[in-house]
Design a protein that fits this description.
By secondary structure, the chain is an alpha/beta fold. It is built from six helices and five strands. The protein has one domain: 5'-nuclease (Rossmann fold). The chain has a five-stranded parallel sheet, with helices on both faces. It is globular.
């Protein structure tokens, strides 16, 4: 199974992994799985950092690579798929993650109940 990390899941994994469920920790640590981090997640993190709401390492890209996480760019297909999504969630970053999950066949690791309303595969973080 391949996973896509929601923003809070990435941050918890890097700083406070005990906040994650044992199932999520096991899945993320499993060397047989591919773990993706969306460009939308990095975009969201950088915006929050610039607003002073978040402190992150200056070498975030390297930290992500050191964890063997894979980058997931936002494609035209991902952006276009957002139009077909029900309006369960107003957050544009989360809507991108849902579209990416559906388009790429990835399971989103999240604790966001609004994401869980979509017809996407998810795992409780």
């Amino acid at each position: 199974m391949n996973f896509l990390l929601d923003t809070h899941v990435l941050l918890w994994w890097l700083d406070k992994p005990a906040l994650l469920s044992s199932q999520a920790r096991k899945a993320i640590a499993d060397s047989d799985t591919s773990i993706f981090v969306s460009a939308a997640t990095i975009w969201e993190i950088i915006i929050k950092k610039s607003l002073g709401k978040l402190v992150i390492p200056d070498n975030l890209e390297q930290v992500i690579a050191d964890n063997n996480f894979l980058p997931l760019p936002i494609s035209f297909a991902h952006a276009l798929a957002i139009e077909t999504l029900p309006d369960f969630h107003r957050d544009p970053f989360d809507r991108v993650l849902v579209a990416q999950s559906i388009c790429e066949g990835l399971t989103i690791v999240t604790r966001d109940p609004d994401i869980m309303k979509y017809p996407a595969s998810w795992m409780m973080a």
